[in-house]
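Lecture notes, unit on binding sites. The following record was shown on slide 14. It pairs a sequence with flavin mononucleotide.
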Amino acid sequence: MPRLLIVHHTPSPGMQAMFEKVVAGATTDEIEGVEVVRRPALSATATDVLEADGYLLGTPANLGYISGALKHFFDTIYYPCLDSTGGRPYGCYVHGNEGVEGALRAIRSITTGLSWRPVAEPVTVLGQPDKDALEACWELGATVAAGLMP
Ligand SMILES: Cc1cc2nc3c(=O)[nH]c(=O)nc-3n(C[C@H](O)[C@H](O)[C@H](O)COP(=O)(O)O)c2cc1C
């Protein structure tokens, strides 16, 4: 069964709400035949990445970059996964309170290096996630998962 791996760093209630909506979208009844695996960024492994068929990445913007946790994830999996995950689809969501451009740039740069393929617009949220922001998270999860349906 195709597998979607959600790798996330979730340090606050607002980001937890976003994560839950992404999971809800990815696991909605209309998505059939896709296994959804969630891993906090600090515990995700290269094996998790190799065994998945697509990816969703969630992070806060921290100090103008992705969180240290997601950076650690990429530091850990980059070379082990470089040879055999190219072309796989991914999407991402980023939360911040001031500006998320640096974090987005980092995700684009790292995933370009891995040759992962963006299949949805990044969801970016500033401040407390409102109804529209949470809906966008649901759509993101559903879009990336639907693309993996057999
Ligand atoms: C050390 C630190 C650095 C941060 N740097 C940024 C930043 O560069 N840009 C930004 O938009 N938010 C920044 N933030 C805010 C975080 O993105 C925010 O705390 C996180 O998304 C969770 O948001 P919430 O607590 O409002 O739910 C920073 C937070 C911390 C603790």
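Take-home: Residues 43 and 73 are 8 Å apart (CA to CA).
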